[in-house]
Every structure is written in structure tokens, then in C-alpha cells.
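Recall the central idea of this unit: under ordinary conditions, the amino acid sequence of a chain determines the structure it adopts. In this exercise we apply that idea directly, starting from the sequence alone.
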Amino acid sequence: MKKITFIVTLIVLSSISAFAGNITTYYRNVLVFAYSQANSVYEDDNIKLEIYNERLWATNKTTKTIFIDLAQCFAFHNGTSMPLFTPSEEQNAFKNGKASKRGVSTKDDVYITIAPSFGSKQKETYICNMSSRIYGKYSSSETPSNDFTDYDKRLLTIIGELTEEAKTKGGKYEGTASRHLTEDESINNIGASIAYAFNKNTENWTSVTLSTWVCDVIFAPCYLEKAQKLSYKEKKGFNAKETDASALHIKADSPFEFDEDKCPLIVCDWKGNFNKGTFELKHTFKFVNPKSLWKIVNSQDDILEKRIIKFDGKNADWGRLSYYSTGIEFTHQSK
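Accordingly, the structure predicted from this sequence is:
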């Protein structure tokens, strides 16, 4: 009888151990840039420009085709303007965390065509990435864009304050810290100047400008919860089936209410070296391709796993957590 009881006990303990392994969550720290929603949208009678999900989008409000001339378009970052990227330059800039050294330069002008509006729901057209110059390595004398603006100086000061406030015993950043900023106090500014017309051969182009700034910054722990995949059995049949989005959980209170599909936040994976006074910001998007989960973010949305951001609250109880600061990228151990 004792032998049977001992065997049953081992089985129960093994089951508990296996279950615990499935719910172990590894988390990292993120730096959240929350941009002014009121300044993230420009609209006139013809076109609507929006900055969300780290990108600039355009919507045609008319029944005529709109042409955007890239040779006359510029991006803004922290007070510096530069030509918009070609696709290859944009990818290289995102990978290296640096601005392009040359603008669009071809024999023919390059245009983006925005389809006319004929229905109740008009799909937005992707224009450019707005976050590529934010990602990269920072120090007290260097930034990814090789500039050292007043925005960068304020960012470094606030990083020092937030990390000190979020630090717990053992030097780990397990707490949450945040700041609400005015426009004059902001640590990051992004925007663009867009030239559009209804005929690409015209000489009369309309130039419009959109610029937004960080009104709230948050430093907090986070983890990425992978979306559950449909089983083979669930995929059978003709009923509509949708997979859930992966969820980026942040241990903080949301700075304001926002549309999940049009997120005004840039959430950066933060990796810092307190002794050297350096830190690096990386993206937190996850690619569907299992062979390469973390790559360059570009305009091909279909290769990115759908992601939603969940603010679980500053005092959220995540249960048993295991912290690490080097090595693995964002993963959620859930089998």
C-alpha cells in the first residue's frame, strides 16, 4: 500500500512540475512611447494621414486617384528632416538603426498611388515606417541617428530617473515608472511632409504636414503571450475561424484609451547596461516564420503576427516569473 501511495505521489508531483513549466513566463523591460493622439492625424477634404502602429498611412477621401510624389516628401525626427526611404533603404535603416544617407534618386520620379474611395470602408495605404530611427544603441554621447538633439538629452535624463525608480532589490528592473510630458518636455517627435495631387504630371502639388510627439513614457516589465494556433481538426469545415492575436502584456496602467487596431504607441524592447550608461531599443513585433522570429519590420503586414497590447496594471500579479536580461528575445513559454 505504501508503495502504491509513493508511486501516486510521484505522478502527481510530476504533473504539477510539468504544468508549472508551461506557465513559467520570462519577461523583459520595455520603454513605451505614447504619442499625442490629437497630433497623430491630419485631414482635409481630399486625404487623411494617420500615424499608428509605428507607420504613416494615407486614406483617399475622394473618388479620384491620388498621387504622392516621394521626391517631394520628407520625414521628420526630433527636429531633423530627411527624404522618405526607398523600400531597400528603409529596411537597411531599420536594421542598422540609422537614417538613410541618400534619398530617392532614380531616373524617373517615384509615386505612391492611393486608390479612390468607392465604399463605406476605404483601406489605408502604407506610406513609410516612422520608428526606424528610434531603434538602436544609445549612450551619453551617441544615438542611432548620429544626432544629439534636445530630445535625446531629455530622453537620457528620463531614462536615468525611470530606471532608478523601477529598480528593485538585486539591481533588477522589476518595478514600473512613468512620466506625463508636455510638448516642450517631450523626448521624441516624429512626422512627415507629404506632397499629393490628382495628376502626377501636374506642377501644382499640395503639401501637408503631420507631426506628433511623446506625451507619456513608461518603463515597465512585459512579456509576449503567443497566440494559440488552430488545430488540424479546428481548421476543417466551412465555418469562419479566426486565430487570436498574440498579446504583449505590460505591467503598467494605460496612459489613455486608444483603438487597438490603430495603436498610437511605439513599444521598445529595452536592454540596458547600468554600469556603462548605455542602452539599446529594439522592436517587439514577432514574425510568423518560426525559423526567424525577430527580423526587420517592413510594410509587408502579412508576415507579421497580429499583436495587441494589453496594459495589465502597475500592480498586476503575474504569478511566478523568471527574470533575465540577456540572451533570449521575447518568448512566452506556453505549450
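The longest strand covers residues 206-225.
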